[in-house]
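Standup notes
- DV: blocked on the single-chain target, sequence here:
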Amino acid sequence: MAANLPTHAQVQGGIGVTEPGHDVHEHHDEHHEQSFLQKYIFSTDHKVIAKQFLITGIFWAILGGTLSSLFRLQLGWPESTLEWLSPFLGKWIEAGKLNPEFYLALVTMHGTIMVFFVLTAGLSGTFSNFLIPLQIGARDMASGFMNMLSYWFFFLSSVVMFLSLFLETGPAAAGWTIYPPLSALPQAIPGSGMGMTMWLVSMALFIVSQLLGGVNYITTVINLRTQGMSMSKLPLTIWSFFLTAVLGLLSFPVLFSAALLLIFDRSFGTSFFLSDIYIAGQALPNTGGSPILFQHLFWFLGHPEVYIVIMPAMGMVSEIMATNARKPIFGYRAMIGSLLGISLLSFVVWAHHMFVTGMNPFLGSVFMFLTLIIAVPSAVKTFNWLATLWRGNIRFTTAMLFSIGFVSLFIAGGLTGIVLGNAALDIQMHNTYFVVAHFHLVMGSSAFFGLWAGVYHWFPKMFGRMMDEKLGYVHFWLTFLGVYLVFLPMHYVGIAGFPRRYYSWTGFDTFSQFANLNKFISVAAILAFFAQFVFIFNFFYSIFRGRRASENPWRSTTLEWTTPVVPGHGNWPGAIPAVHRWPYDYSKPGAADDFIPQHVPYSQTQSSNLPYEREME
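- DV (later): unblocked, structure below
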């Protein structure tokens, strides 16, 4: 009797999961018809939850881009009237000018939205949810209920952050890094009041969401891989999602503790981050605290956060490049090693954000050395991507174009990171537009390119239809050119000392010579933002009217393309396929086709088997 039992039976979110070769248990959710709420709103299906993260992320991206367009208007034409915006912004337009405190709020909310709500939740939440079970051969996440909770905590966090935009005193206005004392004193400026409190509450909810998701991703990858799917056969997407979840699980609690201590300082009279503060000549009773302590706590998350944002994009770009170059990914094990190296080193470089805080120069040199060392695994990935493209039979799909664009931006932004990683140079560049240009290229724009590449590539599996490739090309070229036209000139003005976060630069004769360049940057930024509506139209139109997709339109090797065109709850209608080979068997000499899926046994590909593969089956 024991021999007839499944060797790896799992129950995930109410769904029986069996190994290949065993009888398939009937799915519990097929016993009754699901209501609309159960199927689309409070769903425990990882694919539906992924779409929820994606749609919410698109909303936040539109809002974040709108905010950046507003402050670029101010920076490009600081002396012009913006009275025409008063119907939308109300009292934040004063005598035809943007309120200076509201300008700081715009910068704060733009950074918060893009870093956390779009590039963390929107990117990782979407693709980790969607691809992990499909690519490792699982029916669903380890806990469907916990997965559902992770989205709804994110949604609740989004609601709180969005409502803060409509407060009488305005949203949080201390920069997205919310440094005290500005964020710790409710009476400092209007944006330090209720808006900052709601920011902290929203971020606490957001962190809970990320921790719930991260535990689920890690557990699923470790425990629920199908038969034959060893860690050495995982696609690089899964490696990147797995290590991203580990980073989040270790670093987000530190930001949670910083936010909690900041709430204590704001509301309960403690002095974790406050000391020797004077307001209008009156000394506050706070003593003993240090705002530098907050910076350490924030950046201990803040630098791993850079890789929490970029590593999922790295994994997806690796997958898309191998598929569309029709070549095995170059240096598979080196790519995994570089991901591990980046994950480890990302925890020991945080203080390069703090070279100007008066730290001991020796300590600064240690962080500088570690910062420059982290360029090595990043370079390994870059050279391996270029080697994958070399002499490949490249198909220039929209996803492939965005993947190549990702590599271009990652190289450009990474080179400027070497400049900022040098403490002597960083002290001169700190808080200039050089820093803004650097992180928008290497983290912001390149991560967005990875996100778009992923959407274009896996859209057929998400919705069963194809996105329009011609509109995709328009979207790519407008965005690619727009990004470089915005951020390359920023490096130039940053080297000249042009300061970031300044409401207006017209009071400085030194910077008046950059007036036309600032207008150029603003025009390019606004046009690049409006180019995203090409994508938004293409995305939503294709969901309903796009050309119907085949089961494996890109002729890929990984397991998600063995499911039906639009997988149901449980992913595979029958037994889950077993895995026999690594995920990148493209253009193998002697093979009948230019790709061999992971689930095809070596016994069926005798003509293309390598000597060691002939002994495997």
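- Follow-up: The beta strands are 10-12, 15-17, 93-94, 97-98, 278-279, 282-283.
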